[in-house]
Amino acid sequence: MNLAAMGPETTLLLPRVLVTLATLAYAVGPLIVDMNRTHLLHPAWSGHARYHLMWSTLGQLGVGLVALWLTWSTDGSGDAVGRLRLAIVLGGCFNVGFWGALVLRRRFGGTLSDPGGVPAWRGIDGNLVACALIGGLLIAAWWLT
């Protein structure tokens, strides 16, 4: 089967779905997981930390909306692959930011969780699982474009 002859709408369907799943995870996931007493309303968190969480969460949502538009829009330029790859790069920025913060956390006293926060599942922090999956989806989508 000649996939190139099928056109970008068919050949890009799987990478678009992968990018959409990753984007929903990084853009909507924090709204679901973090807007409660385990994070934003955690009694031990300072007001400044709460402000930064809300700022970051709304920023991720905004970038996610742009990424979804890039993923699914058609502007007539014929550069669907370029737009999709830009959406992948945008998502990758958040993913690289997570892994960078993880590596540097001892320098600024950061932790993956707090007492009273989201409990680990079988000893594995959910952020690690989520970001590994998001990264895998984005890498697979890039590879398929």
TrEMBL record:
Keywords: Membrane, Transmembrane, Transmembrane helix. The chain crosses the membrane at residues 12-33, 53-72, 84-104, 124-144. It comes from the Bacteria. This is Uncharacterized protein. It comes from Actomonas aquatica.
